[in-house]
Design brief:
The chain is 38% helix and 18% strand. The chain has 28 helices and 24 strands. The protein folds into five domains: 164 residues, OB fold (Dihydrolipoamide Acetyltransferase, E2P) (Beta Barrel), CATH 2.40.50.140; 242 residues, 2-Layer Sandwich (D-amino Acid Aminotransferase, Chain A, domain 1); 65 residues, DNA polymerase, domain 1; 102 residues, DNA polymerase, domain 1 (Orthogonal Bundle); 67 residues, Rossmann fold (3-Layer(aba) Sandwich), CATH 3.40.50.10190.
């Protein structure tokens, strides 16, 4: 796995910024499809190894280009929206996913990162638990007064499917417990053993009904039956490994809490160990991996969790993953097959992306028929700087190629077997015109990606922008997915986002035009119009993300929404930035000296997590006449809502803008920022007239001087801790 890790990291290191942006967009789209197939349809289109590899490549690119992190990045997604057919349950506490480690170095970095965050010395004791990562379906069980009152799948991490009746049929799940806190949410994994899976498939086959591809699919499909009696007939099992909302703490440590769950009557994994050192963690991983084939059920890695629950609380959570846990995944695989052809796809930013069409090959139980080829340099055997990759071997149609499963849903080609190259194989000529609209495809200096210059006249770009607009993290209009929006675009019904909100007015009289289209009826047409109307009232963060502006992913869009609060405040600041001298600077080097004297630019780049690349993309995109007119037409149809207020329970810093500078001695900068945000404060990276509090530690420099000039309240670390109720440090 170390070699695979290095290869993937090397590939990320060779990407230019432009290429990285395009690759992250591809990864985000692929992950959304994979999540829906896995979590919602119980019919995965890729294996767990492919999915893990997808997230790993995304993480490698984000590590090199942190400013490019998208809101719909794999690191920002948890599961998929609940399927229709079940009522919904909103989790009292979110069901998060886990960050992944793919080799020992990743685990080492994970432990070191926790020490840095908490300010712990390398020799300070720090224990973790290590347990098998079960390959099943996540489930949350809620007990009140010792009685099981509800059971919900993970869903999208916020809302899951109500499968209470089905959960009651599983022998491993007690319906009544004694000695537990009054409110207790027990979380774990529903799975099926290998023996039970084989027996189930034999029965299914004998009855002439559907068989399952693997135990995970069987478990997920069995739990999510509309008829609980079908679930009762399936041999499902349950391991408890965590908890959600509790009215009283289970125990001081992770290991002790798991032991308490076992005493309450839940099955817990006997391979869970407490590890005092990094070496012990890795040794337990090796032990579990070695015995993997003899367990009798599927696992795909080992999960490490910080043992001390008080420290877990200090570390807190990222948007979709806890900081105190990580999944150390088992290695992926390779396969060889024939490259049949190379197709060119055009993305929403005009990038021409080559895709390999392969003779289908099974890799670890998954049939692979496509692979990414990144760009023209990658095909030619060069990196972005002209250096050799694969020993300089180019890729040609007809080649025997090695498919590397550390890419994504569309894996990557790692190597070529020249001994099997056909004699008539010719070097691939990358197109210089767009295959969709015929416009010139230009590769700018320093950019690894060739782009179509057609802009709005290019149907591929227009369609991709619309696909992005209706994607899950954007407007997510029920009944209007990628296929529908493509069909409407092809028929001229929808050319830009605003057209979606005019569909009923233009084509809905009597529902005749829409209901007469193939695949539509009166009910489905009316449902679509209703769904569109529901999305006229929408959160500001979703609107900003849906615009599809380069560099502005879901996280950046959410950060911008939290800071500005309203569309009017956001667009006013962007317009002022576009009108200031920095906007006309020819490049970043010329722009930076102008930014310091530019209030609008300073406000945008001063938002924690928002960099210059995002600010430039906002100003340049929204100042283009045609683009802005399209956006303005869209906004006219919407009732844009501010981000929900945080439940801060009378926090003294709620709604205030806080800047940290200098050295903090009682907590790390990361912990201080996270704590301030939990209390409802906005954390900024620069001091301005809008700053309410500057927290200045030793070594504070220009920010402290500017705060003094502006008359901004300045606190030292002890005063800050006293203000937020942590005066004891």
């Amino acid at each position: 796995m170390a070699d695979e890790t290095e290869r993937a990291d090397d590939a990320a290191a060779k990407l230019t910024e432009a290429e990285a942006r395009e690759r992250l967009a591809d990864l985000a789209a692929a992950l959304e499809a994979a999540n829906r197939a896995y979590h919602q349809d119980d019919a995965p289109e890729i294996s767990d190894a492919d999915y893990d590899a997808l997230k790993r490549e995304n993480a490698a690119i984000e590590a090199r280009f942190p400013n490019l992190k998208r809101s719909d990045s794999p690191t920002e997604q948890v599961g998929a929206a609940p399927a229709e057919g079940f009522s919904k349950i909103t989790h009292a506490e979110g069901m998060l996913s886990l960050a992944n480690a793919f080799d020992d170095a990743d685990v080492t970095d994970f432990v070191a990162g926790i020490r840095r965050y908490l300010g712990l010395a390398p020799e300070a004791p720090l224990a973790f638990t290590a347990e098998p990562k079960i390959d099943g379906l996540s489930l949350s069980l809620r007990y009140e007064g010792g009685a099981l009152v509800s059971a919900a799948t993970r869903g999208d991490g916020v809302t899951g499917e109500n499968v209470t009746a089905n959960a009651r049929t599983i022998d491993d799940i007690p319906t009544q417990i004694t000695g537990a806190p009054d409110v207790l949410e027990v979380r774990g994994e529903v799975y099926m053993s290998h023996a039970d899976f084989a027996a189930l498939n034999e029965r299914q086959s004998a009855a002439g009904t559907k068989t399952f591809a693997n135990p995970r699919n069987a478990a997920a499909g069995s739990l999510r039956q509309l008829d609980p009696e079908v679930t009762r007939a399936r041999p499902l099992r349950f391991f408890a490994y965590s908890w959600g909302q509790v009215s009283a703490q289970l125990a001081p440590t992770q290991k002790q809490a798991i032991a308490r769950l076992e005493k309450l009557g839940f099955q817990t994994n006997p391979l869970t160990r407490r590890c005092e050192t990094l070496d012990e963690m890795l040794a337990q991983y090796a032990t579990i991996e070695e015995g993997r084939a003899t367990l009798g059920y599927d696992i795909d890695g080992v999960v490490y969790k910080l043992d001390d629950l008080a420290l877990q609380d200090r570390l807190g959570l990222r948007s979709t993953t806890p900081r105190w846990a990580i999944a150390h995944k088992f290695p992926a695989e390779l396969a060889w097959t024939r490259l049949e052809s190379i197709d060119i796809q055009v993305g929403r930013t005009g990038a021409l992306s080559p895709v390999a069409r392969l003779t289908p090959v099974t890799v670890g139980g998954v049939v692979v028929s496509n692979a990414t080829l990144h760009n023209e340099d990658y095909i030619a055997g060069r990196d972005a700087k002209g250096g050799e990759i694969r020993g300089g071997r180019d890729i040609r149609v007809g080649d025997w190629v090695q498919v590397y499963r550390a890419g994504d849903v569309i894996p990557k080609i790692a190597d070529v077997d020249l001994l099997k190259r056909p004699e008539d194989a010719q070097p691939y000529r990358f197109p210089t015109t767009c295959p969709e609209c015929g416009s010139d495809a230009v590769r700018e200096e320093g950019d690894a990606v060739r782009r179509c210059t057609g802009g709005l006249v290019c149907p591929a770009q227009a369609v991709e922008k619309l696909r992005h607009f209706v994607s899950r993290a954007a407007f997510d209009i029920e009944g209007l997915g990628a296929k529908q929006v493509e069909a409407f675009h092809a028929d001229g019904w929808v050319r830009e986002p605003a057209d979606i909100f005019e569909l009923k007015e233009k084509y809905g009289q009597g529902l005749q035009q829409l209901k007469n289209r193939e695949g539509w009826g009166e009910r489905s047409a009316q449902n679509l119009f209703d769904a569109i109307d529901e999305r006229r009232r929408i959160a500001l963060g979703r609107v900003i993300f849906a615009l599809g502006i380069r560099h502005v992913g879901e996280v950046a869009a959410s950060d911008l929404a939290r800071h500005f609060g309203t569309w009017a405040a956001f667009i006013d600041t962007v317009d002022r930035a576009a009108a200031e001298p920095a906007a006309s600077a020819p490049d970043a080097k010329a722009r930076r000296p102008l930014l310091a004297d530019s209030p609008a630019w300073s406000e945008i780049t001063g938002i924690d997590g928002i960099g210059e690349a995002v600010a430039v993309a906002l100003a340049t995109t929204l100042s283009q006449e045609a683009e802005r007119a399209s956006v303005d037409r869209l906004i006219g149809h919407l009732d844009i809502q501010p981000p929900p207020a945080r439940a801060t329970d009378g926090s003294p810093v709620a709604g205030k803008t806080v800047v940290f500078t200098g050295t903090l001695e009682k907590m790390t900068r990361a912990e201080a920022k996270a704590q301030a945000e939990r209390l409802g404060a906005k954390v900024s990276g620069s001091v301005s007239a809008k700053t309410d509090i500057l927290v200045a530690g030793p070594g504070a420099g220009s920010k402290a001087t500017k705060a003094a000039e502006l008359g901004i309240e300045t606190l030292d670390e002890d005063e800050w801790l006293a203000l937020i109720g942590r005066g004891d440090g």
